Amino acid sequence: MVVTMHFRNPRLVHYFIRNFSLWSMKKDPYLESALSKNRRWIVNNQIKNIILRCPDQVATVRFIQKKFKTLDLQGKALNWLKKYPCCFQVYLQGDEYYCQLTKRMMGLVEEEESVKDMQEPVFVERLAKLLMLSSNKRLNVVKLNELKRNLGFPDDYLIRLVPKYSDMFQIVNYSGRRSSMEIELVSWNPDLAVSAIEASAHKQGTEPCFTCSLPSTWVKSWERFHEFNATPYISPYLDSKGLERSKEMEKRTVGLVHELLSLTLWKKASISKLGHFQREFVLPERLNVLLLKHPGIFYVSNKYQIYTVVLREGYNGQGLVDKDPLVVVKEKFGELMQEGLHEYNRRRHLVNLEKKKKKGMVLGRPNEGKDRSSEMSDPDDQGDRGGLFDPEERKRFYKVLFDDGTP
What would the pLDDT profile of 141-196 be if each residue is shown by its tens digit? Predict the structure, then answer.
């Protein structure tokens, strides 16, 4: 009855599923919070890199303002920079505002570079595994550059790693176009062709299988997970030929996305960026639909209108279970950001109190003035905006898709 009522027109059905399939699943407040904190860090890290590339590592605020669009930010750069006084030192010289990194920030920059030097063997292994996952054992450099920060690779990884490890990698360009330059795997290493799931199973002395991170109340989702997990695990490092349009192919694809996310620093990636590797990793055209079918393994969010997939087992609450050494350094950066944001909010609150006193206004409840440094109304922290359908319509769609209401 539900289908008849809402899906009479076949074209409407196609439009509905095509657009609705990008919806995120039921929100997980802890993972949403993790994405929010990570987003602020990403923006400030990009600003940091912009400043470091400037002469004498000093940038005009006007120049940073021009870069705001590429950072997907709105508002005034000066206001943004002043929110993080522990990270950015802003000063006026003549009629121009300038910005440079604070001494504490420069200390973290040096520490990060030191960690990258020590992590070089890890980067080599990570790059080799990526190439081994690809169908033709090579990846386009332009595409790979979009994921290099997710993977922790230094900006100069091509110059730093490829020539030094010529027994493992080589740069090729079979078409001759500049945009077609690729990194190719020179030799296959069977010791690296072991997924995170297989490594964990070997350590525990069990058969490799997926884990589910859902509340026990999600009964239908648990049933679907057990049914999916009952079939043998298929390593993403195995050749996918002969698995097309089969349950085994879906099993391998889920395993491949799991492995890709396991290789990232934050156990997450933009679905759009993963989609750029559809041919190389033999991913389905509508990857988002596949991910939504496995809510126990993946969490899909549309935070900031950017569809992101998170590996659920990689998090305990809003914190990473296993932290890469590079993540530890980056979290120090986040703590420095938060310290400055706390001080900024405290000063702003005192200024507002003083204004109210001067105007003779009656102050609100005492709790209204408490610090809300984690709830700043930054342009990048407005939550999810917009959407095609209301919650009830969304619920009906899940019922049609899964023969089950939203858990």
Answer: 999 998 998 999 988 899 989 999 999 999 998 887 878 899 999 999 999 999 99
Spatial CA neighbour of 169 closest among 153, 179, 177: 153
- How much is the pTM? 0.75
Query: How many other C-beta atoms are found inside a 10 Å radius of the C-beta of residue 159?
Result: 10
CA 70 remoteness from chain centre: 17
User: What does the pLDDT look like over 221-276, one tens digit per residue?
Assistant: 888 889 888 888 999 998 877 666 688 888 999 999 999 999 999 999 999 999 99
Residues 44 and 330: beta-carbon distance below 8 Å: no
User: DSSP of 221-266, one letter per residue?
Assistant: HHHHHHHHHTSPP--TTS--TT-TTSHHHHHHHHHHHHHHHHHSSS
| Burial status of residue 80 (CB atoms within 10 A of its CB: 0-12, 13-18, 19 or more) | buried
The answer to whether the CB of 1 falls within 8 A of the CB of 281 is: no
Q: At how many degrees (to 10) do helices 247-263 and 120-133 cross?
A: 160
Angle at 76 between CA 303 and CA 271, to 5 degrees: 20
